[in-house]
Design goal:
five-stranded mixed beta sheet, single chain, six-stranded antiparallel beta sheet, 26% strand, CBS-domain, Udp-n-acetylmuramoylalanyl-d-glutamate--2,6- Diaminopimelate Ligase, Chain: A, domain 1, Arc Repressor Mutant, subunit A, alpha+beta, 23 strands
């Protein structure tokens, strides 16, 4: 039987897109406490089924899929620009396809505005009205209000009219930045993208014995399985090593690893890979917040996906991409690096985070010359770093101290004008390709 938390989530999921939700209403409808209702609504928000907007409330929105994650809803736009909804609240769940800046004559502007878009404009009542009639939502900059005619039209068409105190340029930049960030998120692979779902996962129950393990092993050829209770919650993991020396009648509960390490659907593949390599795990159960089994993810699948990611072009540049783009390889395994303004802290010197990224990148490039394959950084120790100013060109000198089949140790020195300004140590673990 499902828990109250699960019942609320199912109820929210079945609500019509655009439906208003409140803690009190959920608690009354499903006869649960307001605390339980609040926690379930927050979980639904984390899963992308609802969106909470200040001064508006919580509404059911369409859950985004990987393919359209770069598209924002108007509800998200309200939060991005710290906006106030003046009308058309029923349309906040709708998706923004593109936005237009209304900095031209009205007749010229309307040639560009189209349905599903967002018109960003100042205090121009006619532009607001024409934008709504064209099927676009309206974002009014400068903190201006809309006319009563525009508000009524917005309610009739279920197209939001939003007001923000920011100017047009700042507003457009904020929305563009949000879309750009979504593009980067789209490229990050998560457990949910590659895991083996529960329907295709071989499991054992708490009441099973080692005989059941051997039978399942003969049928599937696998050597490790999650152990679940009668509510599908993960209670342990059992492997072929665990049953050595035990007879067939022994319950698996006696020999399994209890409270195993698990992962969630939203965990990034990089974090998952590091966890599996560091802990020496070949298979991880994928669970929800209630520890119910959703599926499994194997080390082999993770490594294959990571190798595939390395061959894919990046759609949006991350901070690391911007930093490493300025790292130029010289002869004798040395690198040069120019300190750009966006890489400094508030004092105008190279930030420690950027130093760490540069050190790791130089170490990785050198280690890959020593041994082909993938690797994971296990530890970075920054011994010292002196202030390095904007526009400085520094020299990075990595040196391999030791490289075995499994580990690589690199000493990295940083020089400016022939003087040592930084020193670090990097420990990396090599991982075999499958």
């Amino acid at each position: 039987m499902s828990t109250k938390h699960e019942q609320i989530l199912k109820y929210i999921e079945n609500l019509e897109v655009g439906h208003r939700i409140s803690v009190r209403q959920i608690a009354k409808t499903l006869n649960v406490s307001e605390g339980t209702a609040y926690r379930a609504i927050k979980e639904a928000e984390n899963q992308g089924y609802v969106s909470t907007i200040e001064r508006v409330g919580t509404i059911r929105i369409e859950k985004k899929h990987k393919g359209n994650i770069e598209k924002l809803t108007f509800a998200e736009v309200v939060n991005i620009v710290d906006g106030q909804v003046l009308g058309g609240r029923e349309g906040l769940h709708k998706t923004l396809n593109r936005f237009f800046i209304g900095a031209m004559r009205l007749e010229d502007m309307m040639r560009y505005v189209e349905a599903g878009g967002l018109l960003i404009v100042g205090n121009r009542d006619k532009a607001h009205e024409y934008g709504l009639q064209a099927g676009a939502a309206v974002l009014i900059t400068g903190g201006f209000d809309a006319s009563d005619v525009v508000k009524r039209l917005a309610d009739e068409l279920s197209l939001p009219v939003i007001s923000t105190t920011y100017d047009t340029f700042t507003t457009a930049a904020m929305i563009n930045r949000a879309i750009y960030d979504q593009l980067i998120k789209k490229e990050i692979v998560h457990v949910a993208d590659i895991f083996i779902p529960f329907e295709r996962t071989n499991v054992l129950a708490l009441g099973d014995s080692i005989r059941d393990f051997r039978k399942l092993n003969e049928e599937t050829g696998h050597s490790r399985y999650p152990v679940i209770d009668d509510r599908n919650r993960v209670q342990g993991m059992i492997t072929a090593k665990d049953i050595i020396g035990h007879n067939d009648e022994v319950p698996i509960e006696k020999v399994m690893t209890k409270d195993p390490i698990t992962t969630g659907m939203t965990t990034s593949l990089a974090s998952c890979a590091h966890m599996m390599i560091w802990e020496g795990i070949e298979c991880l159960p994928v669970v929800d917040d209630a520890k119910r089994l959703l599926g499994i993810i194997t080390r082999q699948d993770v490594l294959k996906a990571l190798q595939m990611m390395q061959r894919q072009p990046q759609v949006g540049e991350t901070i690391d991409d911007l930093i490493t783009a300025h790292l130029t390889e010289m002869d004798d395994d040395r690198f040069s690096f120019k300190v750009m303004p966006q890489m400094t802290n508030h004092l105008g010197v190279l930030s420690q985070g950027v130093v760490t990224t540069v050190v790791i990148t130089a170490a990785i490039r050198l280690l890959r010359k020593q041994k082909k394959g993938d690797l994971v950084i296990e530890n970075v120790t920054l011994y010292f770093i002196k202030p390095i100013q904007i526009e400085s060109i520094v020299e990075i000198q990595p040196k391999v101290l030791d490289a075995t089949r499994r580990y690589g140790k690199v000493d990295v020195e940083i020089f400016y004008n022939g003087q040592a300004v930084g020193k670090a140590f990097v420990l990396a673990q090599f991982i075999d390709r499958y």
